[in-house]
Amino acid sequence: MISVRNISKLYRIYDNPSGRLKEILLQGRRKYHRDFWALRDVSFEIPSGETVGVIGRNGAGKTTLLQIVAGVLQPTEGEVTVEGRVTALLELGSGFNHEYTGRENILLSGQILGFSEEEMRQRMDVIVRFAELEDFVDQPVKTYSTGMIMRLAFAAAIHVDPDVLIVDEALSVGDVYFQRKSLDRIEHFRKAGKTVLFVSHDPRLIQRFCTHALWLENGRTAMQGDAREVVTAYEAFCQRLENERLNAVSQEMEKRAQDSAADGIVRDLQLIGSRWGNGRIRLSKLELLDAKGEAKWLFKTGEDVTIRLSLLADQEYGAPVFAIDIHRFDGFFMGSVNNYDTHPATLPLRQGENTFSLQLPKLDLPQNSYFLSFKVYTEADAPLWPDPADVHNQMYQLTMIADQERHGLIQFKAEWVNSAEGSEMNLA
Description:
Order of helices and strands: EHEEHEEHHHEHEHEEHHEEEEEEEEEEE
Strand content: 25-35%
Number of domains: 2
Strand order of the largest sheet: 5-6-7-3-8-9
Radius of gyration: 27 Å
CATH class of the largest domain: Alpha Beta
CATH superfamily of the largest domain: P-loop containing nucleotide triphosphate hydrolases
Distance between the termini: 41 Å
Structural class: alpha/beta
């Protein structure tokens, strides 16, 4: 069980090291620091057997909170109570002596937790096999890669039978296979009635493994409760921030398009890095609209989405080619729509301003965050397409949320048939 009551953590920030000495010499008569509250009045309780995830933006106080719960830091205010043996995976390889071998570090980590050397030697083979370091366990840890250190730390932590497991984004550096194996182990812990508290920037993990979630914002509790509800609210908050950023970018792009000559815009595009092209046709604004025609960036799976494009052309073009690509946040390519071969259409442009839309009815993307890319060519130039007029590479974010859990990329239409009774169960 973990009980956190009104904890706060204060850091004093000095502009230079001499400020600390001056305060000591002046006995506090003058202040040379500014106060920074990494945490402020955070409270929650986790009963035994619960798995709770902590989410929030960078700098929200997540790591500080876990360090306080693990006993690494002391709170400035408030109280923390943790019942049972605690194992924490905080900073990568923390507690390891890099001059020691992997085997020696396993023994050391166990002794810190109160196990005898004999008890740890009985667990040694299981730990080494789980970490997949049989060929390297007797080499100094300083020769290990980042992934090897993470595997060793995680394997040593979970095989000492902790009552409370605290994990701070440690699994993000592992390969996909080891991540799955580690997450399966966390699931085993959860089912065994252990208490798990972990930080992750992946909302899917929070929803999959956690019954409850805590959202921190600027060191304070923004929301806590059911994991799905908290994650949905957090994603909507992040999306609002992204809307503000994208609207500002869109306005700046529109201003540049109106105020700059073509050569100047081409030069700007090349400098941005995620946008380039010869500038003969330029995208000045991209909006995502719902069925009511309202602009937004957060949609439900199956909702109608319209992409409205505003363009400037330096002359008339009879058959330009447009394309919209969609990538998942991790770079996985989801698909593309264009007017050349996937959805052929002739879309001539006149000189000056042009507006047209791409309609995506009942967009069936799983719940996740995606990035849209836009490309335009003055004419078809397959197969290499060497001279685009304007390319916006993954510059626009689209977030999808879903009411129904989906396993994998595809939602199948399927029916279960009970052959013995001749009845059907429609699960479409």
